[in-house]
Each structure stands twice: as C-alpha cells, then as structure tokens.
TrEMBL record:
UniProt protein name: CAAX prenyl protease 2/Lysostaphin resistance protein A-like domain-containing protein
Span of domain CAAX prenyl protease 2/Lysostaphin resistance protein A-like: 148-245
Naturally occurring in which organism (per UniProt): Ancylomarina subtilis
One Gene Ontology term of the molecular function aspect: endopeptidase activity
Spans traversing the lipid bilayer: 20-47, 67-90, 110-131, 143-162, 183-200, 206-228, 240-262, 274-292
Highest taxon listed in the record's lineage: Bacteria
A GO biological-process term: CAAX-box protein maturation
InterPro entries given in the database record: Rce1/LyrA-like_dom
Keyword terms, alphabetized: Membrane, Transmembrane, Transmembrane helix
Length: 308
C-alpha cells in the first residue's frame, strides 16, 4: 500500500491541508475565471443578463452553449495547474504521488472505470427512457451536438480530475496522515465534497436534504474505490465518465450545466435518482472489486508508518 502511506513522509503541517485547496480554488476562480468574466461583460454590454437562479446557465448572455461549457470548465484546468505548482514546495511530493503514492499513473484503471460507469449510465438512461419516455424531450441539433461531444471529452476531465485530486487524493492523504483511519479517509472528504456543491441549482430546486445525500454518497463511493484500489485512478475515470455522459446525453432545467444535450429531462425525481445512483454505485464497486481483486478488509486496517 503506497497511496495513503505516502502522506506519512515529508512536511505535512495540518494547516497546509487547509491552505492549499483554498489557494487552488482561488486561482481557479480568479485567474481561471478571467475569460468567463470578459465574456460576461461583453454579454451584459450587449443587453444580456445572468440567470440568478442558475449561474451555470449563460444563455441570457447570448453565448453559444458550447462556448459557455468551455468557459465554465476552464477555471478547473487553471486551478489544477495552480495546485500542481504549489504542491511541490508545500509537501515535497508531486501530483502523481497524490494520485497513488508512486511515480506513475495507472491509466488502464482510469479508462476501464470510465467505460464501466459510462455503460452503467447508458443502461440507466435506457431503462428510464423506456419506462418514462413522456418525460424526455429529444433535443438533437447536430451543429451543436457534435461540438458538444468534442468539447465535453476534452475539457470536462480537467474539472473532474481537479476535484478528485483535491478531495480523493490530497485531502484523503491529509486525513490519513492525521487519523490513520481508512474509513475516515473515505468519509470526511466525501462530506467536504458534498458541501462544495451546496450552491448548485439542483440543491435550490429539489431541496438540501434530498440532493446533498446524492453528492455525499457519490463522494463516498469514489473514496471507497480509492482506498480499496490504493489510488484514485478508478475514481477519476468514473467521475469523468459521469459528468461527460450527463453533459452529452441528458440535461434538465435545474442542471448546473446547461448543454445542448441529446435529451432534456422535463420531470426529474430526485428520490428516484438517489435510489438509482446508490444501486449504480454498488454495481460499479462490485465490478471493479472483481476485476482488481479488492480486499475489503483493508478498510479496517490502520494506515501504517511512522510520522515524520
């Protein structure tokens, strides 16, 4: 086991685990948001307006929806670069060591997990559509859809990687450093991950106590995958596949990302979505556990090593 144990070496003052994520998010939302800010200013000058109920909906500014998606995702790319640059002087380790404690990234795990989650998501959508076809509105516009596919595949992985590196990688290693408890490694970053999304329009539309469990369970599943697999590649892959799939295939009025997706879901049932997501989470863990021979007893083992 190397992923969590790597955090037991080198400079690891507790305040760094609070400060570095703040720095990364500040970089993302200042430097990274400059293109979005410029576009918003031009939009307002030309008579447009932001959507106060959904900041991710830039249609009121007159922007192309695919350009809007790029502008909303670009800050995460800048934030990821900022995190990588500050990480080395803070902790004397690189981003690969945050991903799995070694000097190489297991890309085969990333792509396998992404493929599995994409297939599960496709199956869920197919079943939902076959049962509730009247809730779905076909939204196919080839001139928008094809660029959407390309942009989603290119830019969304930076957004999901940024979140995974921060929560399932960096903060998880920090929790491991100070608690040595693998369950807390999965649970505490999952709660922080859920609270990060508290301002999403879905929370306002459907209610905190309905939507927040979805985000926390989502984060917990990725946390368990990371602990069991001794690295975050499977979580990175599944998270990227999830967000890309949603961006390309189905959107809704209250979705944080308003894209020209293939379908618009006009009747979102958050309780049903919570149940379905939980079943999907169990399924992907079962598939990956079988594929990679995960040992669930690891969850009860203390993170070994001497503090330095």
């Amino acid at each position: 086991m190397k992923f969590l144990e790597r955090a037991l070496k080198g400079p690891n003052e507790w305040w760094k685990y609070l400060l570095l994520p703040i720095i990364a998010f500040l970089i993302a939302n200042t430097i990274g948001a400059i293109p979005l800010g410029i576009a918003a200013i031009f939009g307002v000058v030309n008579g447009g307006a932001m959507n106060p109920d959904n900041p991710g909906d830039l249609s009121g500014l007159g922007l192309d929806p695919n350009l809007s998606l790029f502008l909303l995702m670009f800050p995460f790319l800048v934030g990821l670069i900022g995190f990588i640059l500050v990480l080395k002087p803070f902790h004397k380790r690189n981003v690969k060591e945050v991903i799995n404690g070694t000097q190489s990234i297991r890309w085969n795990r990333f792509f396998y997990s992404a493929a599995v989650w994409a297939m599960i998501s496709g199956l869920m959508l197919l079943v939902d559509y076959s049962i509730n076809a009247e809730y779905f509105e076909l939204n196919l516009n080839w001139s928008l859809f094809l660029p959407l596919v390309i942009i989603s595949l290119l830019i969304i992985p930076f957004q999901t990687t940024f979140e995974e590196v921060i929560f399932r990688g960096y903060l998880a290693q920090g929790v491991a450093r100070w608690t040595r408890n693998r369950w807390l490694v999965a649970i505490l970053p999952a709660i922080a991950f859920g609270l990060l999304h508290v301002m999403n329009p879905e929370v306002k539309e459907y209610g905190f106590w309905i939507t927040m469990p979805q985000y926390i369970i989502f984060g917990l599943v990725f946390g368990l995958m990371s602990v069991l697999d001794d690295g975050i590649e499977t979580a990175m892959g599944a998270h990227a596949a999830n967000n890309i799939f949603i961006s390309i295939f189905v959107t809704a009025k209250a979705s944080v990302l308003q894209t020209p997706a293939l379908f618009v879901n006009n009747h979102v049932d958050p309780v049903k979505d919570l149940i379905v997501m939980t079943l999907a989470a169990v399924l992907i863990i079962a598939i990956l556990a079988k594929k990679y021979n995960w040992n669930f007893a690891v969850l009860n083992q203390r993170v070994a090593g001497e503090k330095e």
